[in-house]
Fold this sequence. Notes:
The structure holds three protein chains of three kinds. By secondary structure, chain B is of the alpha/beta class. Chain B folds into two domains: about 160 residues, NADH:ubiquinone oxidoreductase-like, 20kDa subunit (Rossmann fold, 3-Layer(aba) Sandwich), CATH 3.40.50; about 80 residues, no CATH class. Chain B is built from ten helices and five strands, in the order E-H-H-E-E-H-E-H-H-E-H-H-H-H-H. In chain B, helix 3 links the parallel strand 3 and strand 4. Chain B is globular. The two termini of chain B are about 35 Å apart. Chain C contains six helices and 14 strands. In chain C, the strands form two sheets. Chain C has a seven-stranded mixed sheet, with helices on both faces. The N and C termini of chain C lie far apart (about 45 Å). At the A-C interface, strand 4, strand 5, helix 4, strand 11 and helix 10 of A face strand 1 and strand 5 of C.
Amino acid sequence: MNYHILKKDELDGFIKKLSGKMKVVAPVARGAGNFAFQEVSGASEIALKYIPTILPPKKYFMPQRETMLEFDISGAKPSDTAVVDAGETAVFGVHTCDLAGIQCLNMVFSERPRDYNYLRRKDKILLIGLECGDYCDEYASCALVNSHMPSGGYDLFFTDLGDRFIIHVHTQKAEELVEEMGLAKAVPADMTALEKVRAHKRSVFKKEVNVDPRKLPAIFAAGADSKVWKDVGARCVSCGNCTNVCPSCYCFDMADTMNLDLKTGVRTRTWDSCQLEPFAQVAGGENFRKERSERQRHRYFRKFKYSVDKFYRFFCTGCGRCTRTCMADISLKETLTSLVKENV
Amino acid sequence: MTNASKTATKPKVAFFDFACCEGCQLQVANLGESLLDILGAIDVVEFREVMSEKWDKDYDVAIIEGSITDHHAEERIKKIRARSRVLIAYGACACIGGVNGMKNSFELDEIRRCVYGKDFKLFDSVKTRPVHQVVKVDYFVNGCPIYPPELVEVLKCALRGLPYTVPDNPVCVECKLNENVCMYDRGVSCLGPWTKAGCNSWCVNNGNICYGCRGEVKNPAKNAASDVIGKYKLSAGLIKNKFEMYNKCKEGDINGGK
Amino acid sequence: MKEEIKNSNWKLRKGTIIAAKQMTDAEKWFDIRLEDGELDHEPGQFVQVELYGVGEAPISVCSSPTKRGSFELTVRATGRLTNAMHKLDAGDQLGIRGPFGKPFPVKVMAGNDLLFVAGGLGIAPLRSLINYVFDNRRDFGKVDILLGCRTPHDMLFGSEIGTWQKRLDLNFLCTVDRGAPDWKGNVGLITTLIPGVTIQPERTFAVVVGPPVMYKFVIAELIKKKVPERQIVLSLERHMKCGMGKCGHCQIDHPKNYYCCKDGPTFTYDEVKESKKL
C-alpha cells in the first residue's frame, strides 16, 4: 500500500516538473461539451472534471496514422526499414474505463506475432489515472463491465479528496518519480477519506443494464439472429464513429504512399472500422458483411462475446463513447437491454 | 520496378477548363513546393491560367476542370478525350457537376430566360453533366476546390499506371481521426455522414461544415437523416437543402456516358 | 524519436521472380526465390506479396513444400496489387511476408483416402497439397481429384493436369460449366461429379477449395455421401490484410469469430458450419 499526497495547488508544479522531463498530455476542454487529450504545460489547461474525450488515449499507443516501414527502390535492390516514432510521454488524467481499454489493447498487441510498434510506445508511456467520483453522464455503463473502480493498468492513480489528491503509486517507475517530486506519504486520515470516496461510488454506480454480466456472452450467442441487429442496422449511418472512438477497437488498414521522387515511400497503418462498407470485401467482389445489421452485430460481438472467449474479458469498457458519438442515436445500453429482454 | 521509372521522356500533361470558377487551377498554382516537384516529373504543355502555348500532338495526361453545360463543350471534351491517354477530372464541377448542377433543379428554358433574358434561344445550354457522363474518366479528384494533397496522390498514381480509389467512406471517418468536435454537437448540420472522404476533413478541421462537395458515398444511409435530425433537434429541410448545392447531377451516372 | 525496429513483423523478405507465365487471360503464374532461403511453408498456407509503393495482397502458395529452392504463386488480376503484379516478369523483385495461416491437416489426413474438390482458382492452394501428397504418395490411401472451371479456356495448370490424367495412383475427373467446340469432357457444375465417385466415407478426407458460392452445394453432396463433417476440409476466402490476426478484416461471422488468417484459412466443416457465410 503505497499512497502519496499532492495538494491541489501543487498540481501545477507537478505538471510543470513532469513536462520538463517528458511530453505531458491531459484532457483539455474543446468546446460544445467535448474534451480531447492533448499536450499541456500546466494544470490550468487541464480539465479535471471531464466526460470521456472524443478519442480515447489509445491514440498514444496506436496513432491514427503511423509509419511502419520506410522503403527505397532507387538502388539495384529495394531496401526497407521498419520504424517506430515514439517519445517519452506522460498521459495524465486517464479514467478507469480508458485504463481498461489500454489493458485490452495490451493483450491484443502482445499476443504473438507481437506488434513491436505498439509495445515500444507502451514502454515509453507513463500512465497516470484519475478517479471518477460520480457518473460522467447517462451514456456510461462502466459498472456493468466493472471498470468503474481502479484495478491496475496505471503507474500512478489520482483520487480527488477535495483539497488534495491521494495518489496510488503502482510501479517502480512511478515510485522513483514520486520520490523525486518529494510527495508526502498519505496518513491514515487520507486513507479514510479515500475509503469514503469509494463507498460513495459503490452507492452511486449500479449495473446500468438489468442483467447478470456473466450471462452476456451466452445471451449474445443465443441472439446472433435477433431482430435487434436489424433495428440497429436500419439506423446505422456506417460512419465508423462508434469504432474510431472506442478504447478497445484496434482494426487497421495498411497502405503504401510513394514520395514525389517516385523512388522512396512509406507503409502506413491507419485506423480502420468494421462498420465501413468495404471493410470485409475481398478483391473478387464478395462482401462478407454487406449489410449494416451484420456489421453492427459484429461490433457488439467483438465487445461482449468473442473477447470473452479469447481474452476472458469484455472489450466494452463502459465509457459510453459509441453512444455519445452515434449520429443516429444508437445506444449501447438500449441495444443490450433489447437483446437481454429477448433472451430471458 | 514500375513502368514510369523506365520511361525517359517526361509525360505531356495539359490542363483544360470547362464551366467552373477556375478555383481548382488556383489550388494547383498554390501547391508551392510540391508543385516544383511535380513539374520536375511532368511536362506541362497546356495550362491556360499560366501559359499561352498550345500543343498539337497527343496528351499523356489531360486534367479537366469544370462541367459540361452546352453542346460546344460536349464536342470539345470528346476531342480532348480522343487525344488523351489518361484523363483526370478534378474539382466538383468536373467530378459530380458541382454547383453548376443546381441548374438541373429547374426547367432548362426557365433558367435560360432568367439568365439570358428574352433572347435566351440564342444561347446554347444543356443540362449540366460531370465529365464522366460524357466521356470516360480514368481518375477523379473530388472537391470544391480540390484537396491539393489528393491531387498530388492521384498524379503519382497516374504517372505510375496505378489506380486511385476514392475512399467510399463518409467524411466522418477522417474527421474523427482528426479529433474534431462534431459540428452536430455545435448545433450545426453537416454533410460529413453522407459525403465521400478523401479530403482529410479539410473543412471541419478549419471550423467549417462539410458541404458535400465530394459527392455522396455509394450507399448512403437512407433512414439516417431522420434519426440525426431527431437526435440533434434540427429541421428536416436543412440537410436536404445542403445536398442541393453540389449533388444534382446523379441521373444516368455512368462512367463514359450512356 | 524515430528508431528502427529490427525484429518487426512488418519487415519484408526479399524475393526475386525466377520464372513467370501467363496462364489464362486473368491468371499469371510466378516462381519466386527468396534471398534468405526457403519459404518454409506447409500446404494450404498463404503469403502477403508486397510491391513497394503499391501495397500488399494475400496469395495462396500453389507449390508443395517438397519443392525446394523456390515457391510458386498463381495470381488472378482483381485488385490494385494483383494487377500491378501481372506486369512483373522474371528478374523483377518483390517483398514477401509469411507464410501465414493454419495449413491443411496433412498429419491427420495421412493413412486416409483423399477426395479433392477444386473449383476455379481453388486449384491453386489445393495444388500445394496435391503435389505434397504425390511426393509422399505411399502415406495416403486412395486419391480422387475433381476439378471444375467455367470453360476449358479457364483451366489452370493444363499440362500438369494432363499428367495427372495418366497417373494410375489416382482418379481424376474434370468438368466445365460451359463447353467449347474442342472440349470432349464433362459439362456441368462440379457437384455433378460427386455422386459418381466411389469412396469409403469413414476413411475419407474431402478437401474442398473454390469460390464461396461453391461450398454449400459441394458440402451437401459430400454429406449425402456420409463423409463426416470433421473430415471435410475447406479453405475459406477473406481479405487477410495483416496475416497476424490483428487488423480485423478477415474475421468470420461465427460464434468463435475466427480470424481467417490465423485460425484458418483451412478449417474443417465441423469448425465453421455455424458461420453466417462460408
